[in-house]
Structures are given as C-alpha cells and as structure tokens.
C-alpha cells in the first residue's frame, strides 16, 4: 500500500506535519489536548463523507448532493423525533433514507446516462428543498443527553472522541478496499478509461450505482452525527459542506478527471484543511481570511501539480539541447 | 445496464446534423416558453393581481439579475466549462459599487457601471488565466475562487453595511424607473442577451465556442485557439457577473458582503433548465435566459398560489432533473432518427 504513495501525497503529509509543528510553536493553546479533541470533532463529518467521495471522484464522477443528504437526514430525524419515535429506530431509518437518496442519484446517473455533475446539482437543490419541506425553519433540540453527550464523549483517559476512532477504522477499511482489492483496482480502471474497463469485464454502471448509494448512506450517517453533536436537527445543517469535502479530496491529490489519488492523501488533505482553519481561528485570524485560505489551498492543489509537471517537461525538453 | 447508456464523449453524438440539432433547440425553447406561459396563466387566474402593472414590473426586475448571469454562464458552459464563482463576483462588485458611492457621492452612473464590470472582468481574467494557462478544470478553479472572492469581499466589508441612503438619487432611480412599462434594469438584461445571442450566431469566434464544447481536442486540432477562447468566455462571464453586481446594488440599495451568496446554483440551474448541455457544445443564450425567467417566476408564483415557499428549492431541483432528463431523451431520439435515415440512404 505504501508504494502507491506518489509525490503529492507525501507533500501534503509533509505540509500537514509542518503546519502542526509550526502552529504548536507559534499558536498558544494549539498543542493542548483539549484543542485537538475539538478539532477532531470538526474533522469527523468531512472525513466521513470524504471516504466514499474519494472513490466516486476516482471513477471520474462527483457527488455535490452530500451536504443536502446530510441536511435532509437531519430534518427527517427532527420530524421523526417530534412524532415520538425512539432514536434506536430513527438511526436505521435515517441510514436507509440516505441509501435511497444515493440510489436516486445513482439511478439518474447510471440508469439514464446523465452527467453526475448536473444530476447532483439538481438533487443538491431538491434534497435541501425537501429538508425545508419536512422541517421548515424549525429546530428540534430536545434530544436526550444520553445520546447527544455520548456522541462527543472522549475515549477514557484522552480527549480523542470515540467517533474519531470509528472514522479511523472506516478509513482503514476503505483504504484496504481501494488499494488492495480487485474492486479498488476496478475503480481506478473506470476512472482512467471506462470503456476499456467495461471491455475488461468490469460492470461500470453497477459499480458507480453502488458508489452513489454508499455516499448517500455515509452522508446520512454524518447527518446523524451532526444532529447529535450540535443537539439540533435543522433543515440547513451542513449547508455548503459539499464544497469543503470536494476541496479536501482534491487537496489530497485525487484528480478531478478520475483515475488518480489515494485515501492516505485524502485523509491528510482533510486534516490539513481543518487543522489550518482551526489553527488560524485560534490565532484570532478572522473567519473571512479562512475562506480565502480554503479557496487558495484548493487552487494551489490543482494548479501546483500541473505547473510542476509542465515545468519538468520544459526542463526535460531543454536538456538534450544543451547536451 | 451497461456502459452503452453513458453518453459517448465527443462529436459522435447526433449534434452533427445541423437541422436536427436546430430543431432540438427550438423544441427545448418552445417547451420552456410553454411552461412559463402555463405557470403565469394559472397564477394569474388564481390571483389577477399577479400580472397587473406592478406585478409585471416585479417579475421583470426579479428575472433581470439571473438573466444577466445566465447569459454569461451559458457562454462558459457551451465551451464545456463552468463558472461557480459568479455569486462571489456579484457580491464583490455590488459592494464595490456601494463603496464607490460612499467615496464619491456624485460619481456618475456610468462610472459605477464601468467599475463594476471592470472588477468582474478582472475576476474573470483570474479564472480564465488559471484555467487556460495552467490547464486546470474550470470546476475546481472556480470552486476555489468562489471562496477566495467571497473571502476578499467579507474582509473588505468587515461587517460594514451600505444603505440606500448612501447611494445617489440618480442611481437608485435607475433601479426603480421604467421605460414604456419595462424597468430600466431589465433593459440591461435584454441588451446583454441580444448582443450575446447575435455574437454566438454570427461571428466565427462565437461559433467556435460550440466546436470547443463538442470536442476540445478536435477543436484544437482544427486550429481553433481553444485556450484563448475559453479565457475570453471566462472573462465575459466575470464581466457580466460584475454588471449583475451593479444592477443588484441599484435594485436593492442595501448591501452587505453576503450579496449573491449561493446564486451560482440558481444560475447553473437556469442554464441547464434552458437546454444548455452541461457537457458543452449545444444550447443557446436565449434558452438560458428563458430558464432564468422561468426559475424566478416560479419563485414569485409559489406564494401567490399559496404553496409553502419552502417548496421553491425542491421545485428548482426537480426541474433541473426533468430538464436534463428531457434533453437526454430528445438527443437519443434524434440520434435514433438519424441512424434510421442513414440506414435507408445506404
């Protein structure tokens, strides 16, 4: 698995480590374990959704509806809770809802052969709209503390939230599937050339369909976590989060054209994005600057490798002339 | 389901047949126009005041900004790119207009227009340069500049709000005055639409945008300066978003850094609903403008029809899905018909 790491993944990890070391020295309070507990709570929803999103982008598709699935799940949770359903029943229902919403995306994309960008911009609006239809602008906040408190509970003796450990386990599972199984190799093959992949016996449409189901399911899980963490079910929960997820995935070295990228890189990208944001916040840098930083990071992450390879090609072209 | 359902990239689609493709556009635009007429009729029957003088004015004003943005977006999408930064550019330019009038209360309107368009053009040039020079996908670049421009807007505004009282009377009048029943602001949209439509149809470089969108590699091989054209399309989109920002300032008067947040979604929706294929090469600015009018009219009609306004976004989403589904179905039908004709001819 390690030999799959390209130069970009290593670079992201190096930058991440540099940011952590630099912030520990320069930013007061950054090195505290309490701060890292909060930071990991911020990482969880983005890291969670970034897992299936990585697989989708590697196949050359995109899912922009994830944050709306999160919002709709949260709204449905609120409405079900108002109707007196117990949380142990709400959780599986919400996960099922996410799977269905993902399946709708998958059906439009693979069944009707429509571009995923257009379809998921449509369902981004549709699902968010339905979230408002379900819950309006109400907020449902009277969830029992046994759930909301438990969701941000730290592992005994540490400040690491136990959910972060669940995400870590999931990340390892995703990484093994992507980098060490035929399924994962198939995803790269689809992203590189889906016609060639189809000729070599990979069921392209079916694979993509299930990837969208997976993304919907995970986004709904993230919605459950979000609602419990903030103890508030709202239709606008997670609005705009799709941009952060896509930014983190691309920052992690996944090519928007598909066929390239690793999960280690993506997880480093998620951590880099959130660490940098929280460190700047802790250093009293205004929120507006954080927005600029996020955007600039994203642009650098795509322009950087391209510019570097163009430069390398130019140098290589020049070398024979001087020899 | 096999991969055969995925649209084959490139010019092998039925778009080669000019007459068939042309008929497709007309069908699409007629369809949107019919939907629009139906919507207005039903709403007017439900409440006749929907279409009185004030109602007509509100409808036109409501559509103006979206139409200007949709024309720019259509030009970009035709080249198989996308500009997600338009909402942020609009916000930046609207705030700049307010700042301009704060600094120079007597500044002529033309100066405000030039400043707004210029600022938007500058943003568009940044987008275009990153895309064309570094050969990076527009989706990612404009996703990045969406954050960057908005962040600049917020740090510039620093919580400041500009009120209508800070704007000169002449500029505010531009936002409310009408000419022969048509709001002055809407005239801007009409002019932009006609100029863009004329250019795309009658200029070689305009038609080359379609060629680029159909198959960028083939366009490059046939000598079309793809990078230059895409750069220009992004610059135009930015400039129009800048213009939309000035119009926004004139219409609403009250400005903060959040102006136009999230509008990029509505703009892309308008373009897609208007029959511009998201993967480039087909569609028209007229369709995109019709799509924009339809979306803004839905927004105005729902409360009149006593439908919970919470439904609006859901309706927009459903409409996008219906529109791209219909586009796919029509394309498939024309492809089928063409194949039949060719078989008979052989």
TrEMBL record, chain A:
<feature type="transmembrane region" description="Helical">
    <location>
        <begin position="209"/>
        <end position="227"/>
    </location>
</feature>
<keyword id="KW-0997">Cell inner membrane</keyword>
<dbReference type="Pfam" id="PF02653">
    <property type="entry name" value="BPD_transp_2"/>
</dbReference>
<keyword id="KW-1133">Transmembrane helix</keyword>
<keyword id="KW-0813">Transport</keyword>
<feature type="transmembrane region" description="Helical">
    <location>
        <begin position="33"/>
        <end position="57"/>
    </location>
</feature>
<keyword id="KW-0472">Membrane</keyword>
<dbReference type="GO" id="GO:0005886">
    <property type="term" value="C:plasma membrane"/>
</dbReference>
<protein>
    <recommendedName>
        <fullName>Autoinducer 2 import system permease protein LsrD</fullName>
    </recommendedName>
</protein>
<feature type="transmembrane region" description="Helical">
    <location>
        <begin position="116"/>
        <end position="135"/>
    </location>
</feature>
<feature type="transmembrane region" description="Helical">
    <location>
        <begin position="289"/>
        <end position="311"/>
    </location>
</feature>
<dbReference type="GO" id="GO:0022857">
    <property type="term" value="F:transmembrane transporter activity"/>
</dbReference>
<keyword id="KW-0812">Transmembrane</keyword>
<feature type="transmembrane region" description="Helical">
    <location>
        <begin position="89"/>
        <end position="109"/>
    </location>
</feature>
<feature type="transmembrane region" description="Helical">
    <location>
        <begin position="7"/>
        <end position="27"/>
    </location>
</feature>
<feature type="transmembrane region" description="Helical">
    <location>
        <begin position="264"/>
        <end position="283"/>
    </location>
</feature>
<keyword id="KW-1003">Cell membrane</keyword>
<feature type="transmembrane region" description="Helical">
    <location>
        <begin position="155"/>
        <end position="178"/>
    </location>
</feature>
<dbReference type="InterPro" id="IPR001851">
    <property type="entry name" value="ABC_transp_permease"/>
</dbReference>
<feature type="transmembrane region" description="Helical">
    <location>
        <begin position="239"/>
        <end position="257"/>
    </location>
</feature>
UniProtKB/TrEMBL annotation, chain B:
<comment type="function">
    <text>Part of the ABC transporter complex LsrABCD involved in autoinducer 2 (AI-2) import. Probably responsible for the translocation of the substrate across the membrane.</text>
</comment>
<feature type="transmembrane region" description="Helical">
    <location>
        <begin position="230"/>
        <end position="251"/>
    </location>
</feature>
<dbReference type="GO" id="GO:0022857">
    <property type="term" value="F:transmembrane transporter activity"/>
</dbReference>
<feature type="transmembrane region" description="Helical">
    <location>
        <begin position="257"/>
        <end position="278"/>
    </location>
</feature>
<keyword id="KW-1133">Transmembrane helix</keyword>
<comment type="subunit">
    <text>The complex is composed of two ATP-binding proteins (LsrA), two transmembrane proteins (LsrC and LsrD) and a solute-binding protein (LsrB).</text>
</comment>
<feature type="transmembrane region" description="Helical">
    <location>
        <begin position="30"/>
        <end position="47"/>
    </location>
</feature>
<dbReference type="InterPro" id="IPR001851">
    <property type="entry name" value="ABC_transp_permease"/>
</dbReference>
<keyword id="KW-0472">Membrane</keyword>
<feature type="transmembrane region" description="Helical">
    <location>
        <begin position="59"/>
        <end position="78"/>
    </location>
</feature>
<feature type="transmembrane region" description="Helical">
    <location>
        <begin position="310"/>
        <end position="330"/>
    </location>
</feature>
<keyword id="KW-0812">Transmembrane</keyword>
<protein>
    <recommendedName>
        <fullName>Autoinducer 2 import system permease protein LsrC</fullName>
    </recommendedName>
</protein>
<keyword id="KW-1003">Cell membrane</keyword>
<feature type="transmembrane region" description="Helical">
    <location>
        <begin position="179"/>
        <end position="200"/>
    </location>
</feature>
<feature type="transmembrane region" description="Helical">
    <location>
        <begin position="109"/>
        <end position="134"/>
    </location>
</feature>
<feature type="transmembrane region" description="Helical">
    <location>
        <begin position="84"/>
        <end position="102"/>
    </location>
</feature>
<dbReference type="Pfam" id="PF02653">
    <property type="entry name" value="BPD_transp_2"/>
</dbReference>
<feature type="transmembrane region" description="Helical">
    <location>
        <begin position="285"/>
        <end position="304"/>
    </location>
</feature>
<dbReference type="GO" id="GO:0005886">
    <property type="term" value="C:plasma membrane"/>
</dbReference>
<keyword id="KW-0997">Cell inner membrane</keyword>
<keyword id="KW-0813">Transport</keyword>
